[in-house]
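Checklist before submission:
- one chain only
- standard amino acids only
- sequence pasted in full

Submission:
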Amino acid sequence: MSVLDLLSVIFYNLKRRKDRVLLTGLGVVIGSASVVLMVSLSSGLQRGATSQFGRMSDLKRVEVYPGMGQMMMMGGGGGENQPQMTTITPSLISKIKQIEGVDEVILQENLKTSYTIEFGRLTTYASVVGVNIQDLSPLDFIFAEGKPKIGPGVAIIGGWAAKNFINPNAKMGQQDPQQPQLLDKLVRLIITKSGSDGKETRKVVYLRIGGILKEARSSQDNNIYVRIEDVTSWNEWASGKRINRNKDGYDSLVVIAKEVKQSTAIAEEINQMGLMAYTPQMVVQGINSFFTVLQIFFGAIGAISLLVAAIGIANTMTMSVLERTAEIGLIKAIGASDEDVLRIFIGEASGIGFLGGVGGILVGWLGGQLLNMVALVYFAKQALKGAGGAPPETIVYTPLWLILAAGILSTLVGMISGYFPARRAMQMAPVAALKHE
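Returned file contents:
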């Protein structure tokens, strides 16, 4: 029997018993719809969680800080082991640059003395951070105004610091001052140090704001970025001594990975050097692992309905074999082989599973869209009331692989459920089957 003949027979048998096929397939519809909807819900939640986190942090970035290295013995006999601080020295930086997947290493140094940032009579609070690059594009900052360039006397300020200037001499009840337009304007960085006699000395540095960052709800919002050599000279002026990088090291590094998937491995290798390394990708991987388990759990719950549907298909096919015993004997008598009979009945069971799977996918997808509409309207209303942040883009997300998997799974359920009834039909003797009433 050719493939076309086999498909024609299967389609005809399903069509002439459409009421029974419809009722049996309804169980598969419910089961596959449950799988699609529940796994789509967990996929949507995962997608929302990772996208929200990805907007807050660059997943290629690895933040590196000094760490607690090897234990060292302090004192004479019986002394206690004390942790030795591992600083970010030039030698360690060279090793970090050689790690596979590292694209760029950016040095960072903080201003470590008292200072204020002023514009006219207004003051803002920001952390002064020196970096060893003049173009901040590798840090992937989003700019509200200006360009990502720093240089002699040119700085870039974070979004929060730029919008939170206050009047330190304001009287109680006085309105907040109007925020200045800082782009291409000069601000004063007033650095203060105390001498051994307690007398304060001030240094005034004028910085032109070449760029203003867009607020990202991270540490960059409260930073003002300048050249690292400027911060080094200010720190040396405040401390009264030169900085030995081989001993004192740097405050922190930003390591940029070539690919997002490499950032976690880079962070782990840096941690093995005794430093502290962190990347947001570690959190994203944890989120993905959690939602993968959740998807398996939800899928297992939905699969219970498919198990019930499988029993229904097996029952339907068993009854079909009993009712069509004479028909089985007839098609065997006119030349159909045992394998042809087996294929016909397995094909019918697979057809029930496939049709039920298609219906279930459609029902599950429509249910997900309805849930999306209801949830997003609710979150939008909450956002307008000021309760919570921006609403998520989607609640239920149905990936293509889930649609394909649901269709294949429902077809396999039908095929497996129909195997034993089909085998029973295959083993019938033609003469005995023709005599059956």
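Reviewer check: Residues 338-384 form the longest helix (47 residues).
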